[in-house]
Amino acid sequence: MNRFDYVKPATVAEAIAAAAAPGAAYLASGTNLLDLMKGNVVRPARLVDITGLKELTRIETSGNGDVRIGALVRNADLAYDASFAKDFPAVAEALLSGASAQLRNAATVGGNLLQRTRCAYFYDTASACNKRTAGSGCDARDGENSQHAVLGWSEACIATNPSDFCVPLTAFDAIVEIEGPAGRREVSLDALHLLPGRTPERETVLVPGEMIVAVRLPAAARAFAGHARYLKVRERNSYAFAVVSTAAGLVIENGSIREARLALGGVAAKPWRAREAETLLAGQAADARAFERAADAALRDAKPSGDNAYKIPLARQLIVRALQAAMQGTPARMPALPASPFSSVPGVLHDA
Amino acid sequence: MNWTVRLTVNGEPRTLALDDPRVTLLDLLRERLHLTGTKKGCDRGQCGACTVLVDGRRINACLTLALSLNGAAITTIEGLAQGDQLHPVQEAFIAHDALQCGFCTPGQIMSAVGLINEGHAGDDPERVREGMSGNLCRCSAYVGIVEAVCAAQATLAEQKERAA
């Protein structure tokens, strides 16, 4: 780990001023940043520790019913907030399927949104990586790439975004509140992360010095609370990143779908919203045929970036299963193994 | 430059001067306070051997800067027993033979104490297994660990009921 300067400001304004120094990085709990620094993958000259900003630790409901989650709310605190989990069950399930209990106790909402890719070549400083060093090449293209992207990738980068939390957030139209040297602005979560294109070193729309201060879920997302699931295929049952994951939410009326939300994780450099699939589902009978058509639409543009063609049919099956599970209704209690596609869902075929 | 960090470690207030902000909570405990019960396994948040309680919550001490925790109360494996009286989780690990080489055991025990405090798993083995997935055991003593955690949970629940 490189040497760095350490400051711990008391207000957001002080933090933004402190982060104006070249090479500065914000430090929240550090579960990702310190890991990257230990590997010399990133080498910030200054850490601006924002964990003293108590104003960013609240979960609030505003007058219009939107829920505003401060950027420093810990992942576990949000997932176990009874009222939040009741209204946004797929978000809670996604949070509890991520990392380990120790990491969820520490990791923050803002940090989760800004966690870096877990591509092994990005982490290995002996490998070429356009994301780590712009223009240096991509060793993943001809390397071990069975976990890599099947949507939205480019020749420059085929890494995937590892966040579980972001998948239902994008499905349910979350808004990210940002504060920076030029003031305050908002972007939709869907617009926060960038596809790699020719500049994979740029992962988000944030400019230097900008900080995420909160994430908002619109009141309207509560309509899906009765039929919302997050399912995640992992290489082991717990404490592993998604090979493929999906968040599904339905509003069902008399057996047909009034509205649908669908997003995928583990398939692209950003959480992947499947809007065309959502449109196809609206107004349809909630049956296997509709779910399969939606899944096909969601993956129409998918193509392997290496030894990962298997991810496409896997994602298709997982979408169908998540929609079936959502249709059956949100479980009354969080499943023992959150997001596991292997938990039995009443009425869902095991090979669905 | 020097930084000062104030922590309560196993009930004892400590004030430490640090000449380098890179010191993690794990290194502070082991190298500066000589509390070597907390183990360094992977040092990257993957194995859980460094699990300690910060203000009652379990975290990985290896992925936390000591300076960032200024003012916090830390409990390590050394702070769990009351004199010669082992903590119920420690007793359960012995009774259920929940270890082989023992290297991961302090982390397992601190994680189990954190899990029981959190109160979401109860004595459901499936929820305990999931809740303990951040602690790896290379000897694979998982069967005994899950039994020990379930048994300790029951003992602690009984104690709480009797005290009420």
Shape by Cα distribution of chain B: globular
Q: Give the percentage of residues in beta strands of chain B.
A: 15-25%
CATH topology of the largest domain in chain B: Ubiquitin-like (UB roll)
The chain-level structural class of chain B is alpha+beta
- Total number of domains of chain B: 2
Number of strands of chain B: 5
CATH architecture of the largest domain in chain A: 2-Layer Sandwich
What's the CATH C level of the largest domain in chain B? Alpha Beta
Largest sheet report of chain A: 5 strands, antiparallel
- Counting DSSP E segments of at least 2 residues, the number of strands of chain A comes to 12
Examine the secondary-structure arrangement and name the CATH architecture of the largest domain in chain B. Roll
Report the CATH C-level class of the largest domain in chain A. Answer: Alpha Beta
Helix content of chain B: 25-40%
Mean of all residue-level pLDDT scores of chain A: 96
Total separate domains of chain A: 3
CATH topology name of the largest domain in chain A:
Uridine Diphospho-n-acetylenolpyruvylglucosamine Reductase, domain 3
End-to-end span of chain B in angstroms? 51 Å
- The pLDDT mean of chain B sits at 97
N- and C-termini, Cα separation of chain A: 47 Å
Structural class of chain A: alpha+beta
User: Can you write the helix and strand succession of chain A as a string?
Assistant: EHEHEEEHHHHHHHEEHEEEEEHHH
What does this protein structure show overall?
The complex is a heterodimer of chains A (352) and B (164). By secondary structure, chain A is α+β, with helices and mostly antiparallel strands. Chain A folds into three domains: 5-52, Uridine Diphospho-n-acetylenolpyruvylglucosamine Reductase, domain 2; 54-114 and 161-219, Uridine Diphospho-n-acetylenolpyruvylglucosamine Reductase, domain 3 (2-Layer Sandwich), CATH 3.30.465.10; 225-328, CO dehydrogenase flavoprotein, C-terminal domain (Enolase-like, domain 1, 2-Layer Sandwich). Chain A has helices at 12-18, 33-38, 75-79, 82-87, 89-96, 101-106, 109-113, 120-123, 166-171, 189-192, 275-281, 288-298, 311-328, and strands at 5-7, 24-27, 46-49, 59-61, 67-70, 175-180, 183-188, 211-217, 228-233, 244-253, 256-265, 272-273. A five-stranded antiparallel β-sheet of chain A has the order 4-5-8-6-7. Chain A has a four-stranded antiparallel β-sheet with strand order 9-10-11-12. Chain A has a three-stranded parallel β-sheet with strand order 1-3-2, with no helix packed on it. In chain A, helix 12 (288-298) packs across helix 13. Chain A is globular, with a radius of gyration of 20 Å. Chain B has 164 residues and is an alpha+beta fold. Chain B is 36% helix and 15% strand. Chain B contains five helices and five strands, in the order E-E-H-E-E-E-H-H-H-H. Chain B has helices at 25-32, 88-95, 105-118, 125-131, 142-163, and strands spanning 3-9, 12-18, 51-54, 57-60, 73-75. In chain B, helix 2 packs antiparallel against helix 5 (142-163). The mean pLDDT of chain B is 97. The chains are: A alpha+beta (352), B alpha+beta (164). The A-B interface holds A 1, 3-6, 8, 27, 29-31, 34-35, 38-39, 47, 49, 51, 76, 80, 99-103, 105-106, 237-239, 336-338 and B 1, 3, 20-22, 24, 43-45, 48, 51, 57-60, 63-65, 67-68, 70, 111, 114-115, 118, 120, 124, 126-127, 129-135.
